[in-house]
Amino acid sequence: MTVPASGAVRGLRRVDLLCLDPMAAAVFYRAVLDWSPVPVEAGFDCWVGNRRCATIRKPRAGESSGFRPVFAGAPMDCTLTGPDDTVAQVTRGRAQHGPWAPDPRSGEPCWVELATTSPMRADAFWSDTLGWQVSTGQPVEYLTSGRAIANRTAENLPAGPGWLCYVSLPDLAGITRLATKHGGRAEHIEHPRLTETVLLTDPDGAMIGLTTTRSWQ
Q: What count of other Cβ atoms lies within 10 Å of the Cβ of residue 60?
């Protein structure tokens, strides 16, 4: 579905995790990322302090498991599917996480990255749909009012094509030990604009990036 942007999307509202066992996922991310999960009708809302950073729920018919970004500032709530069948959600309201939001606390989203096999098609779709500008440098960035919202890469990330969300954390060595203890795994990766970075895979195979970066990049 394509929704004409009535104003540029300026960041994330939250990230959503779709999985078959929301309870087990809530326990894992509470232990590893120190999220505070609160039961709701659909699954769990996860909080860091007074800001909701994520939701965890079962996938609906036709939805794939894994993390997906929920961008804020759209004229309506809907799901977008771009090139490579890359999925993101958009919702009304202001961004809780982004360049105009407060700096991320430990456990909060601090960046989002798109990996695609069709760079030109992806740039056209996401910029036209979400009201972004596309930078000419490397890595390619999606911008609003001169501020970067996300970057795009044509490289084959371990998670495959799609959106990869990153969470800010000060101690990646400790997180790696916790992830292993609770049935996940963590792999150090190089990133062109973030500081020390780890790719966290939970016991169900969902992937999210972790970085020591302390501001929206």
A: 9
Structure tokens at 92: 């009304």
**Neighbouring C-beta atoms of residue 90, cutoff 10 Å:** 23
CA atoms within 13 A on the CB side of 12: 31
Q: Kindly give the residue spans of alpha helices, DSSP state H, lying in the chain.
A: 22-33, 119-130, 172-181
What is the three-class DSSP state of 215? coil
pLDDT mean over 58-71: 96
CA–CA gap between residue 124 and residue 128 (Å, rounded)? 6
Tokens 């799609």 appear where?
162
pLDDT tens digits, one per residue of 165-214: 999 999 999 999 999 999 999 999 989 889 999 999 999 999 999 999 99
Strands 36-40 and 133-134: unpaired
Residue 117's contacts (CB-CB under 8 Å, 6 or more residues apart) are: 83, 84, 154, 161
Residue 33 is inside which H or E element, if any?
helix 22-33
The count of residues in the chain is: 217
Q: What percent of the chain has pLDDT over 70?
A: 96
Write down the pLDDT at residue 154: 81
Chain position carrying tokens 């509470």: 30
- Residue 185 CA to residue 178 CA, distance in Å, equals 9
The Cβ of residue 127 has, within 10 Å, a number of other Cβ atoms equal to 17
Tokens encoding 14: 């939250």
Q: Which two tokens stand for residue 31?
A: 């232990």
